[in-house]
Amino acid sequence: MIRTIISTLALVSCSVLAGPKVLVETNLGPFTLELNDQKAPITTANFIKYVEDGSYIGSIFHRVIPGFMAQGGGFNQKMDRLPTYSSIKNEASNGLKNDTATIAMARTNDPDSASRQFFINYKNNDFLNQSGANAGYAVFGQVTQGFEVVQEMSRKPTSSFGRMQDVPVEPIVITNISVIK
């Protein structure tokens, strides 16, 4: 009886602490993200806004570098840049690390320039973490299921497209994306 109560309490506390979950469906298969809205509330809300408005659907993973990361969300299959909302504050000092299977926001040299592009780390990329003068890249969740799909992306051939490098030859498309209720 006591074990049942403890198990039930553990499940309840885990579900209370768990952040929003997002199902990402691609033409290579699906994967699931769990977002950390406690440590990265601005970034999580921003990502969810793009999920809920449907604008990630049809976007591609436009930069895939084996042993580093897969970046997506900012371009369509014609490599046209997609519209964005305003940039957000960089939350890279939230204590979350750019470790294997984590999702973080892409940005320019301006630390507070992230908008819709994100990347998924293939390995621990400590040099992307905030430290000292390095503003870092804000981690806001992790892949909890289907990381093999993200890994499969890294096995696809890439090429250059204009000034962009590491572009998959065959587009890797987000066919659907939704918050799991």
TrEMBL record:
In this chain the PPIase cyclophilin-type domain maps to 25-179
Q: A Gene Ontology biological process annotation?
A: protein folding
Name under which the protein is recorded: Peptidyl-prolyl cis-trans isomerase
* Entry's Gene Ontology molecular function annotations: peptidyl-prolyl cis-trans isomerase activity
Per the record, the domain of life is Bacteria
Q: Where is the signal peptide?
A: 1-18
The similarity annotation says:
Belongs to the cyclophilin-type PPIase family.
**Provenance organism:** Vibrio paucivorans
SUPFAM superfamilies listed in its UniProt record = Cyclophilin-like
Its function, per the record, reads: PPIases accelerate the folding of proteins. It catalyzes the cis-trans isomerization of proline imidic peptide bonds in oligopeptides.
InterPro entries attached to this UniProt entry: Cyclophilin-like_dom_sf (IPR029000), Cyclophilin-type_PPIase_CS (IPR020892), Cyclophilin-type_PPIase_dom (IPR002130), E_coli_cyclophilin_A-like (IPR044665)
Recite the UniProt keywords alphabetically.
Isomerase, Rotamase, Signal
Q: Which reaction does it catalyse?
A: [protein]-peptidylproline (omega=180) = [protein]-peptidylproline (omega=0)
- In Pfam terms, one family for this protein is Pro_isomerase
Identify the EC number(s): 5.2.1.8
